[in-house]
Specification:
Helices cover 70% and strands 0% of the residues. It has helices at residues 11-24, 39-68, 75-103.
Length: 105
């Protein structure tokens, strides 16, 4: 069977493309232009990304450690939670600090 591709001139596709172009076009986003490159936004984004990555790593490592050390019952959940929060805090701290240092250049 021949491979068919969607028609790029289809009404729904055109509307979607126009909506995406209007959302990302700089002239339509003038209200946020002064705040996009501020140092505080970069640092907060760094902290958020570090927290997300650290939390994900903390869940994986905490789960492995809880089962490897045979932590009993509901204490597994507590151990995984502590590992997740501490890992997220450390990763967020360091990525935020790195963003702050990079922002000063």
């Amino acid at each position: 069977a021949p491979v068919t591709f969607p028609n790029p001139l289809h009404t729904e596709s055109r509307c979607h493309l126009l909506a995406v172009a209007a959302f990302y076009h700089p002239s339509t986003r003038q209200d946020m232009a002064p705040f996009q490159n501020s140092c505080a936004n970069r640092v907060s984004a760094g902290v958020a990304m570090g927290g997300a990555v650290g939390g994900a790593i903390g869940v994986c490592y905490g789960t492995y450690e809880a089962f490897a050390h045979k932590i009993p019952g509901i204490l597994k959940v507590r151990h995984i939670g502590q590992t997740t929060v501490s890992s997220a805090a450390v990763f967020g701290l360091f990525l935020g600090a790195g963003s702050l240092i990079h922002c000063g250049k």
